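User: DUF2922 domain-containing protein, Peribacillus loiseleuriae:
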Amino acid sequence: MAKTLELLFLTEGGKSATLSVADPIEPVDVEIVKTAMDAVISSNVFTTASGSFISAKGARVVERNVSEYEVN
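Assistant: Predicted structure for DUF2922 domain-containing protein:
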């Protein structure tokens, strides 16, 4: 099972943007995530078609299950 921490941001244009972090440390420490998101916003490193990140919207861990089958 692959897990990803998704950091959700609001942009200047009022749209959502997501940054994904593979294999997050669990349990997720919400205070550390919030501090990291604030650092991303203040550094202004990322920009999208709808502008820079202006606020943290949320965070979530997404778990993905993949089942592969041989068909040959």
